[in-house]
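Example (one chain per record):
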Amino acid sequence: MRTSTRVAGVLTGLTLTLCGALAAPAAQADIPACTQMATQAGGSDSDAIAAACRRGVSSDLQGCVTGLTAAGVPGGAANGACRAAAYEPR
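Predicted structure:
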């Protein structure tokens, strides 16, 4: 096999591998962690908490915190729960 053919094959394989890695789906968000943190911190309305955590998943941190605060979650805990919503489940 000629060197140029080998190099072309390696480059093609490398390109396909890199494109596949870039096109891989993003990590799932962790809504259960967000809702659990909010409930443990004193949140009372589970529907409002779930809706707010979904806002956190879509990168609306302020909307998530506002929703959790309205559901009775203290500000610092609401902020932490909303940040947890954006991470991959463990």
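Caption: The chain has a mean pLDDT of 77.
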